[in-house]
Description:
Layout: H1 18-32, E1 36-37, E2 39-41, E3 53-56, E4 71-75, E5 78-82, E6 89-92, E7 97-102, E8 105-108, E9 113-117, E10 128-132
Amino acid sequence: MMTKRIGLEYLEVNQSQKEVTVNEAFNRLDLFVGLTVDNILSSPPSSASEGAAFLVGANPTGVFSGKKNYIAHYLNGAYEFYAPIEGMRIYVTSTKADYRYLGATWLKITEPNIQVVTSLPTNPVAGVIYMVTES
Length: 135
C-alpha cells in the first residue's frame, strides 16, 4: 500500500529490507518538501548532478518522452518521474518564478501590482490594487 498523494510506500509487517522502502520515501520527501526544480526542459541535460530536478516541458524527447508536465528527479544515475497533482506549486530556480499546476498545465504565478496610497486616486489604473493607509 502507498500514501495517496505522493506514493510513499508503507512498511509491512515482517518486511525484509525495510531500509530500501524508507530510503525511497526519504528521497521523495526530499524532492516534494519545498518543491524546487532547476529548470523547465523538454529533453534531459547532457549531464545532471545527483538530486537535480526538472519540470518536463512541451514536446519531451529522450528519456523525458511521454512525461510532459511531470517532475523529473535524477537519482542514482537515472530519472524518476512524478505526475503533478492538481493545485501543486513549484519554484523554478532558472527563471526565479513560481508555477501552479491547474487544469492539466503549469501556470506561471504573477505577483499583483500593489500600491500603497493615502487616498484612492481619481483615475485608478486597471490591474492595480490600491492599499489605503492612514496619513
